[in-house]
Amino acid sequence: MSEPTFTVIAPIYNELDNLTLLYQRVKAVMESTGEPWELILVDDGSTDGSTDLMRQLATEDQRVRPVIFARNFGHQIAVTAGMDYSRGQAVTIIDADLQDPPEVILDLIEKWREGYQIVYAVRSEREGESWFKLTTASLFYKLIFKITDVKIPLNTGDFRLIDRKALDVMGTMRERSRFLRGMGAWVGFKQIGVEYKRHARHAGETHYPLKNMIKLALNAITGFSTYPLQLLTTAGAILVGLSLVLLLVYLLLAIFNNFDLTYILATWLSLIFLSGILLIGMGILGEYIGRTYDEAKGRPLYIIAEGPDEPFDPTRLGKK
Ligand code: UDP
Ligand code: MG
Questions:
Q1: Domain ranges in the chain?
Q2: Does domain 6-225+305-314 have CATH number 3.90.550.10?
Q3: pLDDT score of 196
Q4: Which residue's CA lies nearest to atom 3 of ligand 1?
Q5: Centre of ligand 1 from the C-alpha of residue 133, in Å
Q6: Which pLDDT tens digit goes with each residue over 222-247?
Q7: Among 77, 107, 138, 316, whose CB has the most other CB atoms within 10 angstroms?
């Protein structure tokens, strides 16, 4: 098969009821471009039969290429594998649950043809998501925007088109604590947003519980900022200043011989407060140290049980 112009990547974790419709809609959209394309389905350890359906789609249509993981590695890693195996000149990442309408890919391609290397889809409206998710997501984006070194555009997810040039650079970044949106902003190139309406899930439930959202948020913060570490120094300095003031008060009172029991309580109070600050500080340090340890082990990002014939070769990246 000749090299496709376009690659569409969809990470799949138990999306049996979405898969066929996803394939049909992607196919209709991509065929309308008149260019060769491929659809990479990354199976992130599905247990609901999505894997078999994927194999079947691949035998019926050669343009469907399944990459099947040995277990669940998480959404960001699944997308990474899709990027590693993609062959297109413009690569689009899309959710399999049809929250991101495949038809929007045409708008992304239009901007790509105008010369943009990263075209991210901006959610102007969101449908069928809880108040809690919307509020936490909005707070999260604002926080990230404020404290990280890279300017990640607001209200964007991983739904985006990436040009081969930017994609190859991102492919050389093998960090385990992955936050693809941050990596995309970090590499630079010509970028632009395209607005779209994010729909409700076609079928099934979200696989991104609060626990995973917190994990992704911590990856985003620690991966792109050392601000929390600097915060420790600031907090330390403020506390030392405060204790000096207290020392002065204490000395004055001692001189004028005016002690009573409340000072014992105050001692306890400050002891507990300071221990709290110290433990939080150690926790922040731990987040960074734990990640450093994870990176140091240098394990592969994912394990493929079954997939494209040619194994992924990281040295291939950035050489084209
Ligand atoms: N997904 C995945 N691995 C996971 C969780 C999710 O590959 O561990 C996929 C999922 O199948 C979907 C996409 O990532 O295609 C987005 O997940 P989901 O819709 O559950 O997240 P939400 O849209 O609610 O943030
Ligand atoms: Mg979803």
A1: 6-225+305-314, 227-297
A2: yes
A3: 87
A4: 75
A5: 14
A6: 888 888 888 888 888 888 888 888 88
A7: 77
